[in-house]
Amino acid sequence: MTLWQVALVDLGVLALAGLGLLVALQVGWQRARARWEQELGADPRQSPTELLFSLRATTPAEVVLTALRAAQGRVAEHPMGSAPLVQWLDHLAWDPATISPPPLPRRRVVDTRVRLGPRAARPLELALPVLPAPMGYGVGVTDAAKVALAQAATVSGTAAASGEGPYLPEERAWAHRWILQASRAGWAHQRAVVALADMVEIQIGQGAEAAIGIAKGPRHLPRRLRHASDHPRTPIRIHARPPRSLAAWIRAIHRANPAVPVGVKLPASAHLEADLARLLEAGVDVITLDGAEAASANSPAVISDHFGLPTAVAVARAHRWLVAQGLRDRVSLVASGGARGAADIAKLLALGADAVAVGTSLLLAMSHGQVHRVVPAAGPAALVLAAPRIPGGGLKVGDAAEHLARWFAATREELVLIAQALGVPSLRALNPSQLVARSEEAARLFGIPYAGAPPGRPPAAWAHNLTALAAGYRRLEQILDGIGRGLGLRPPAKGGGEYGGG
């Protein structure tokens, strides 16, 4: 046989083999389909179709948590926060500027700056109202993630935050503006560390963990953190109660660093108005409300999934209360938990926040382009969450910082675009009157017009403006009373406190 004849025979054999394979696959598929059709009609208790009913009644996440409890006999924990029962920010939409007011042209500059702690001697000034959420080294994320966050924050004109972990020198070295989170643990309270901060935030609790105490065993900690500990074989603890009273803590911070704002971070609770009153009485400059959607590296599911108020609800309530008390200009309000991007950030600003802290989206942004090195052996978060051993060689800091900086740049452009579409020249001009509710429940909850209502504002939509007007008159009356008493024209007011009576 010639070479061509051999080739033709080989091709014929391959063709027959391929045809046989196709026939076999067709027969196999028909048999499998027939088997599944029979299974669909069988008793689900004895059929794989039972899984469909189980997953309808129990979410995959709950199946995993149940397996954790069964296997370990301990409190089940999970990372990355909790999905809210209602995503309230998705129930809100913007009312676009059309004829009056008109939108701004794309070339028009929009002011994105913000000052946190306006009554402090040296307020924290940021180029945009977006902050990286505090993530502690060792107890939350890796040192590489901390450095990437600090570098991106500096390039983007915002501030890096220490989180509740120990002091990381290289983070402070890279951060142009740095927020020290004074935690309930036994570290980072030294006077020299406090003096390095551009703002100090006292951590009373957080949305994913309420205000419970936390213990992390040595096997969960990075080697560097274990070696730095005085007791490397014992768990590190973040206590439930602060090491001192709030007033004493604030005084100690002012002694070490008198010019910077002092803030407090706490979980959003149903009694938040009482919390606000006590914080203002203590002289706090910045209040961070951490909503139920907030994430952490690893939190008890029974706390993370079932405690606290949604961030949007908490911010709206806090803003209304501060305005009603005539105290809105005394304190800055930071929203934390569940903000995914510029749309969520802008809505929280409109509801009353001065700035918004973002966490999970930044972790996703910094790991962009590197996830393939750990998946499928581990989840994407393994690149950034602290552990004794990081798979895939760990996070590449340069790439992570670059992608974070691009995320901040894109978010700033999107915030500017929202302001232009609303016809306002500054992000500080965002307010509830520019929002419409996509559901009647959201309209009642936030006091804004329902998109499905006839033209004209319902009574609830006037609540924000009337409250602000009443607070302004009250403030003016306090000023006039003070002038009158100074001139001897009015007797001293009876009752009331530092902020007036009533």
Automatic annotation (TrEMBL):
Regarding protein family, the annotation reads: Belongs to the glutamate synthase family.
PANTHER family, sorted: ARCHAEAL-TYPE GLUTAMATE SYNTHASE [NADPH] (PTHR43819:SF1)
* CDD domains in alphabetical order: GltS_FMN
Give GO BP annotations, semicolon-separated.
glutamate biosynthetic process
The source organism is Candidatus Hydrogenisulfobacillus filiaventi
UniProt-recorded name of the protein: FMN-binding glutamate synthase family protein
Q: Which domain of life is it from?
A: Bacteria
Enumerate the Gene3D superfamilies for this protein. Answer: Aldolase class I (3.20.20.70)
**Could you tell me which InterPro entries the record lists for this protein?**
Aldolase_TIM, Glu_synthdom
